[in-house]
Design brief:
413 residues; alpha/beta; Rossmann fold; six-stranded mixed beta sheet; 13 strands; 40% helix; binds pyridoxal-5'-phosphate; binds the ligand N[C@@H](CCOP(=O)(O)O)C(=O)O; TrpB-like_PALP; threonine biosynthesis; TrpB-like_PALP_sf; L-serine ammonia-lyase activity
């Protein structure tokens, strides 16, 4: 089993010992997020396609050699990962590309991609001997943390903006978390959570600060690679808010390249909502600073005006030769409908934003007919039924007679 070898600042490259409790680079401040690096020579010996093929574990702990935890007893007893990967012949034909793959990460235990990170966050808290864990969230990181903490027997404190979708807040409460509905935005909830975490000494599960969380998130990229026998698609489309998820795909592929299982990192295409697009803007303008702005999008999970993982996100897009797309709320709602009606995958608005980005990107003519693309659906549609209702339309209301049904069928045809 390998363990994290060093932590390295994404901005200045300064290295830290993983045994220290440092989360962000003291020289660079909060923007100096850290990479968790391994002894790749050691990992290479253990993390082989043959060893994976013989590994019966379905949860993300199957990738323990590339995770920052080396005692499996710290992992919560939840089956995180192994989400379905579908090939859509329909979309390949429609978009005139070789292959379209759809990975439905809304099929995790608490119905979002975030379970991958919280699984590791909770294990790290246990490793540190913490009894309480906390985060700020738009809802998904929180519900995943609440679920994982409940299984692991940790007290859980959550800070969400007051407008968080009711289903997400209900999830938190049913898992027994102590929930603070913050009067303000996600940014306000984030700042308050940081203060409370400092004041009470809770373990911090915020991917924008804690470098180990991205290691959990990267398991989606590892899984995609393993499912495709390490023959990755040319492009991966993924929605972007704080920028942690896209960074995690870069990290997964970076690690796989280090150990020689892939030779090239796929192009990462980050998709933001037009009403919350600071990383998109910085990328398009070739800048290395982020313009903070109030947000305006129905995709609540990516309604982030002050992204904290921008440095890693920009590196992911730039180093992979990728691109960024911004989509309107109408395009997101249309993507929700189209994805559900053609593939059966029901995503929340931020969950399908990557798919909305693929549809928009395809119109630019930048996709070649030889290309294979993957889209990551990051959250389940049932998380936000109000937005789903806006996308879905209304049912027919009828008297309980066949005549009433016939009238509607007749007028609909
Ligand atoms: C469903 C969903 N999609 C996308 C994102 C965006 O991820 P990130 O903020 O890491 O960019 C989030 C939350 O972060 C989310 O909950
Ligand atoms: N939109 C995110 C924000 C924080 O999540 P994290 O996993 O990046 O810490 C959410 O799901 O709450």
């Amino acid at each position: 089993m390998a363990s994290a070898d060093k932590l390295k600042c994404v901005l200045c490259g300064r290295e830290f010992d993983p045994k220290s409790d440092v989360f962000t680079c003291p020289d660079c401040g909060p923007d100096g997020t850290l990479d968790v690096l391994y002894d790749y020579g050691e990992v290479k010996r253990q993390f082989t396609p043959e060893a994976l093929a013989g590994n019966k574990e379905r949860s993300i702990s199957r990738y323990i050699e590339l995770l920052p935890i080396n005692d499996p007893t710290f992992f919560p007893n939840l089956k995180v990962g192994s989400s379905p990967l579908y090939e859509s012949a329909y979309w390949a034909k429609k978009l005139k590309v070789k292959q379209v793959l759809i990975k439905d990460d809304g099929r995790n235990p608490t119905a979002s991609f975030k379970d991958r990170a919280s699984f590791i966050g909770v294990a790290k808290a246990k490793e540190k001997g913490a009894t309480s864990i906390a985060c700020a969230s738009t809802g998904n990181a929180a519900s995943s943390l609440a679920g994982c903490a409940a299984v692991a027997g940790l007290d859980c404190y959550i800070f969400v903006p007051e407008k968080a979708p009711v289903n997400k807040v209900t999830q938190l409460l049913i898992y027994g978390a102590k929930v603070f509905l913050v009067k303000g935005t996600y940014e306000d909830a984030f700042k308050l959570a940081v203060k409370a975490i400092d004041a009470y000494g809770w373990y911090n599960r915020n991917s924008a600060i804690n470098p180990y969380l991205v290691e959990g998130k990267k398991t989606c990229g590892l899984e995609l690679a393993e499912e495709l026998s390490f023959d990755l698609p040319d492009k991966v489309f993924v929605s972007v808010g704080d920028g942690c998820i896209i960074s995690s795909f870069y990290k997964a592929f970076y690690d796989l390249k280090q150990i020689g299982l892939i030779s090239q990192i796929p192009q990462l295409i980050g998709v933001q909502a037009e009403g919350a697009n600071p990383i998109y803007k910085a990328f398009k303008e070739g800048k290395n600073v982020i313009e903070k702005k109030p947000t305006n999008t129905l995709a609540d999970s990516i309604a982030v005006g002050e992204p904290r993982n921008w440095a890693k996100a920009l590196r992911a897009v730039r180093n992979s030769g990728g691109d960024m797309v911004a989509v309107s709320d109408d395009e997101i709602l249309e993507a929700m409908r189209l994805l559900a009606r053609t593939s059966g995958v029901f995503g929340e608005p931020a969950g399908v934003t990557g798919f909305a980005g693929l549809l928009k990107y395809a119109q630019t003519g930048k996709l070649g007919s030889h290309e294979r693309v993957a889209v990551i659906v990051t959250g389940n549609g049932l998380k936000d039924s109000e937005s789903a209702k806006r996308a879905a339309g209304s049912p027919y209301e009828v008297e309980p007679t066949l005549e009433a049904v016939s009238r509607i069928i007749g007028s609909a045809n």
